[in-house]
Every structure is written in C-alpha cells, then in structure tokens.
Design goal:
44% of the residues lie in helices and 19% in strands. By secondary structure, the protein is of the alpha+beta class. Strands 1-2-3-4-7-5-6 form a seven-stranded antiparallel sheet.
Length: 208
C-alpha cells in the first residue's frame, strides 16, 4: 500500500485565500496523496468487504467563488459516485485529519440505514473511546463517541432517520499537530485500524 505522510503544508492549503490559488495548491500538494490513498484503500475495502470498491477524490468542480474548506477521498462500491451510498472517507480540514464512515443527506435509503443502526446500537459501544460522531459533513465540529453515548447518539440516529438533512459520520479526527508527527507507517496503521473498527458497522448499515 502507498504510504502517505501529512505535513503542515498540506493542512495550510485550506488557509490560502482565493478559489484559484487554493485549488492550485490543493491540486499540487494534497490531491496526489488522496489518489495514492485511493489506490491502496480501494484494494483494502474490496478485499475486506467482498465487492469492488472505487476511490472518489473530491474535485470541487462546481465551485465558482468560495474555495473549499476541506477535501477528501471517498470509497464506495459504485464507480460513478458515492454520495447516495454509505461510504468511507479520508480527508483534511485545516485543523485535523478525518477518517470516517459517513451517511449523508443524498442517501435515499438513509431512514432504513438509521433503523439498522438503532437496532444494533451495542456495536457502537464496542468502538474505541477516541472515536467521534457528527451529524453534518459540512462542519469540522464533532463530539466524542463517549460523550455522545449519554443521549446524543440516539438523537443523531433518529434525526438521520426522520430529517431530510440528517446525516451521520463516525470515526476519528486526528488534530493537525498529531497527524503531522506520525510517520507514514504509523499513519497507515492508524487509518487501517480505524477502518477495521468501522467495517462491522458498515455491514449493519448495508444490511449484511
């Protein structure tokens, strides 16, 4: 598998003013790493889940004014897109690296997926304590899974089921200061460990 090291220069791309300038820096510094991760982890997911997975590196093609605040590579078992399916992501905000499993509002079956998660909430209790959950893929904010288990977790899943804009993301956020200190090998190991923990949850979501 290709091994990637994240640097301050990668994270600082998202502080560059101007759409064209930020996109140029993104294309030079960050997107090649996402393509490498895409090649390696699409093989990983295909092997682990028994169906072909495809990488989707964010293009930000529709933007005409506002520069992207984050970017990512997503993985799903569909070559033409990922947003309508539960998917895995590796990505950056300027503050942190994220490694998550996501269901976003474009997923037409997200009410069914939410019901499956509500019926298997015990699986969430088995996840590592440093995991986070979020209800909005457009925001860098998240809460710790440990804190969410009190009452917010169920509320997030009910919102995912009942509200058109409801979303659910779960995984790890690694602060920039920590992510840039990890060696390529350590980072690869942490990414794979995170996805290994999320695979049983993915299988529940898709009804396996």
């Amino acid at each position: 598998m290709q091994k990637i090291k994240w640097t301050n220069k990668d994270f600082n791309v998202f502080k560059i003013d101007g759409l064209d300038q930020r996109m140029d820096a993104l294309n030079v510094n960050v997107r090649p790493k996402f393509h490498q991760l895409g090649e390696g982890f699409s093989i990983y997911f295909s092997s682990q889940l028994g169906e072909e997975f495809f990488p989707h590196v964010a293009k930000h093609a529709r933007r005409t004014v506002n520069p992207p605040k984050d970017s990512w590579v997503a993985f799903a078992p569909y070559k033409r897109g990922y947003k309508s399916l539960p998917h895995f992501q590796i990505g950056l905000w300027h503050t942190h690296l994220f490694i998550v499993l996501a269901i976003i509002y474009e997923a037409p079956q997200k009410n069914v997926m939410a019901e499956r998660l509500l019926a298997h909430k015990s699986l969430l209790d088995q996840l590592p304590n440093d995991f986070i959950v979020s209800g909005d893929h457009m925001s860098p904010e998240a809460i710790s899974l440990e804190e969410a288990k009190e009452d917010k977790l169920e509320a997030l899943l009910i919102r995912l089921r009942d509200v058109k804009k409801g979303e659910f993301l779960i995984g790890r956020h690694i602060p920039k200061e920590q992510a840039t200190k990890l060696t390529a090998s350590e980072l690869n190991q942490l990414t794979e460990e995170t996805f290994n923990s999320l695979l049983p949850l993915y299988n529940v979501i898709v009804g396996k």
